[in-house]
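Give me the fold.
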Amino acid sequence: MSDRYQSFTQTPIGKLLVKNLGLPNPTPLERYAAGDPLVKGTVLVGGRGRLAESLPGLLDTLGIATTGTAGEGQRFKGLVFDASGLTSSEDLIALQEFFTPVLRSLETCPRVVVIGTPPETVKGSERVAQRALEGFTRSLGKEIGRGGTVQLVYVAEGFEQSVLSTLGFLLSPKSAYVSGQVVRIGTHGASTAEGVVDWQQPLAGKVALVTGASRGIGEQIARVLHRDGATVVGVDVPQAADALVTVMKELEGDWLTLDITAKDAPQRIAAHLQEKHGGVDVVVHNAGITRDKKLANMAEDRFASVVSVNLTAPERITAELLDQKAIRANGRIIGVSSMAGIAGNVGQTNYAASKAGVIGFVDSLADELTDGITVNAVAPGFIITQMTAAMPLASREVGQRLNSMAQGGLPVDVAEAIAWYASSASTAVNGNVVRVCGQMMLGA
């Protein structure tokens, strides 16, 4: 699948029409390839706060080159500003003083990260200033252009050394379709455990369960987790058995065919993981269906089946794995929500309810898990798949342009965000729902 309009804008006549008619001009996004450095260029670091002095050393651990000064004519691939020390609204001027002089010095597809303190952990004027960072970063995300992204990372006190996996993700092409997001580190009972030796293979020796793994986004999740070193156990319905087996054999993984809504599905999955792998480290609840219809015309089975697959099954499977202690210490539970669950869609009351429920699933578990186990979710926007390719042309084009990047994302963009959550170094990343939507205009 490809974006035909974007391809057209790169032709001579397309460039002419874009320029003269003011049409959307989406920048081709850079994406990560195995073995690439995380950042191909220099990151400018600045600010005043709890991480300001340690940031260059932390980024050096990831092989990211940094500088603290902007020389004349120097170009930057990324900007990181530590705003955790801003304690009043007057202090916010520091954002303008740092960013304005260097925004025109950014290379194509740049990455911008602002670091703050979770507002809920401070009071008074400091809380005001820290909450203001959300408006700043979301607005800058809509201004930056040229395939750039802007994120806000709130780091709780005591978790300053736990930002590595998050900075590696947000400063690299792995976050190509993630922008305008707020990530919290060190909240919701998180642990500071790290445990990564090889940043190229952060999941080496881990076992990852992926439901709906035979095609589309699920297949890409399986491929990216395998790239990062995991042994993947793919799950899908019996009708998809041939495709599932083909993918899993290619990835030297394992597979299980069943209907995840079956009464005994949680027990069968748990038994398979315990008997063949001694447990599981990463659980990705990707399987999902749509049965669209306006509510006035919707039959009970259409509503119930969507909720059952998208929400009830992940709840039941997770509960069983936790009860049997099949999820090992420092494990990961990852849900796949949707922008539909945040902004809603006509004809998708069932789907939107199920995907909003995934966010509730994260909220309900985040403070309850122990042994370093975390729960997070992604919320994809318009992702180019076989399903979206079958949409009417007008609907498809509108859907792809209604974001800051004026284009749809790819399944690998969702997979990269999940791999970040899955990393052994992401133990302090807990209770987050990050939107993989190119900063969609609908919903915050």
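The mean pLDDT is 93.
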